[in-house]
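SEQUENCE-TO-STRUCTURE ENTRY
===========================
What this section holds: a protein sequence and its matching fold, both as plain text.
Question of interest: how does this chain fold, as expressed in backbone structure tokens?
***
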Amino acid sequence: MKYKLKINNCTCEMGYQLGMCIHDYLKNKNVDKYCISITLYNKEVYRYMSDACIVDNGRWLDRKKNSCLYFGMSTLELFEKNEGNEKNLVQKYGLNHSDYTFTPGSIPIVLENDQVIGACTVSGMKPEEDHQSILDGYALFMSRE
């Protein structure tokens, strides 16, 4: 697992705070269109969609999150591993394309032993910006802990 967010003894409150840190980071960068989802222990503990988002952005959040949790790795790693070939979702893995994607923007949340307990997902910008905003927001979160 190349990209992961390590949070020991992670609580739903910590997940919410992580979401707020990503929100604050993007707001301070004057990004207009973004949405954020934090899922922990099979519960969505944080979800935000800026005014510029549309319903489809929420669907992208769900597709990215589903892929991250199913494979236990970031969607950027999945994208690289599959050379961006979304057909692999159906042909290789037997998944429904409308529910999963290899598009970057979701990173697993893991405990010290690398057990995946959730996913942090961002959508609305370019995929590489979605991915990077998670890493930058996570750094902000860790600096506040």
